[in-house]
């Protein structure tokens, strides 16, 4: 499966920015610049109450097919379900109350996906997380490049990110709930690569 990068989110000088070159309109809300993973680099700080980054729907987010989300993150605490990233009516990546990681996708009829074992997420250290759904039948979660969960389910194509809420990082799109408490150094989103007309998929 071939993927193409459509979002690369990090903390810029004036707030969160998309450095993918795909023109994503990014709005940070109550996101602080905090110490990042590397010396001299800031990360996005989420307060567990009102912080979020909103990426408005765009051409790149309209058709996903399959998705891959990777992120460097630091989890301060877990008090319930905390959203890492969720595309409205499209996909979600989150940490649950038992410190498991869940990744789900929406195909227009139902949500489905994959979940790690409880206790997978350690607190207060940098972690590299990757969630992939291939757009056909296979979902995986890797933490620090170790496979932590795998699910085979013929779920089909993922829908694109919808209005009015778009893609939200660090909070549930619908309201100030499930707000992430910690730091995100970077978050990248890929979609399943488009097949040029006239060429086999």
Mean pLDDT: 94
Largest sheet data: 9 strands, antiparallel
Class from helix and strand fractions: mainly beta
**Portion of residues within helices:** under 10%
Gap between N and C termini, in Å? 10 Å
Query: In what range is the share of β-strand residues?
Result: over 45%
SSE run: EEEEEEHEEEEEEEEEEEE
**In DSSP terms, counting alpha (H) and pi (I) runs of 4 or more, how many helices?**
1
Question: What form results from the Cα inertia axes?
Answer: globular
Uncertain residue segments: none
Tell me the Rg in angstroms: 16 Å
**How many β-strand runs?**
18
Please describe what this structure looks like.
- The protein is mostly beta strands and 201 residues long.
- The chain has one helix spanning 59-62; strands spanning 3-12, 15-18, 26-29, 32-35, 42-47, 52-55, 63-65, 67-75, 82-87, 91-95, 101-106, 111-115, 126-133, 138-143, 146-152, 158-159, 167-169, 181-192.
- The strands form three sheets. Strands 1, 2, 4, 5, 8, 13, 14, 15 and 18 form a nine-stranded antiparallel β-sheet that branches. A seven-stranded antiparallel β-sheet has the order 3-6-17-9-10-11-12, with no helix packed on it. Strands 7-16 form a two-stranded antiparallel ribbon.
- It is globular.
- The termini are close together.
- 44% of the residues are buried.
Kindly summarize this structure in a few lines:
This protein is an all-beta fold and 201 residues long. Helix content is 2%, strand content 52%. The strands form 3 sheets. Strands 1, 2, 4, 5, 8, 13, 14, 15 and 18 form a 9-stranded antiparallel beta sheet that branches. It has a 7-stranded antiparallel beta sheet with strand order 3-6-17-9-10-11-12, with no helix packed on it.
């Amino acid at each position: 499966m071939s993927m193409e990068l459509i979002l690369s989110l990090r903390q810029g000088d004036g707030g969160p920015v998309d450095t993918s070159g795909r023109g994503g309109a990014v709005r940070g809300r109550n996101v602080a610049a905090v110490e990042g993973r590397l010396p001299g680099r800031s990360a996005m700080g989420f307060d567990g109450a009102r912080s979020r980054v909103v990426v408005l729907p765009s051409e790149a987010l309209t058709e996903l097919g399959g998705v891959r989300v990777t992120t460097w993150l630091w989890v301060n605490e877990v008090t319930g379900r905390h959203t890492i990233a969720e595309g409205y009516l499209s996909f979600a990546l989150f940490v649950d109350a038992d410190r498991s990681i869940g990744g789900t996708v929406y195909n227009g009829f139902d949500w489905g996906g994959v979940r790690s074992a409880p206790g997978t997420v350690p607190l207060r250290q940098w972690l590299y997380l990757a969630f992939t759904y291939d757009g056909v039948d296979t979902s995986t979660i890797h933490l620090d490049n170790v496979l932590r969960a795998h699910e085979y389910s013929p779920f089909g194509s993922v829908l694109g990110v919808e209005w009015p809420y778009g893609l939200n990082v660090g909070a549930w799109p619908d309201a100030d709930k499930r707000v992430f408490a910690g730091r995100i150094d970077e978050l990248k989103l890929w979609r399943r690569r488009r097949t040029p007309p006239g060429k086999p998929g």
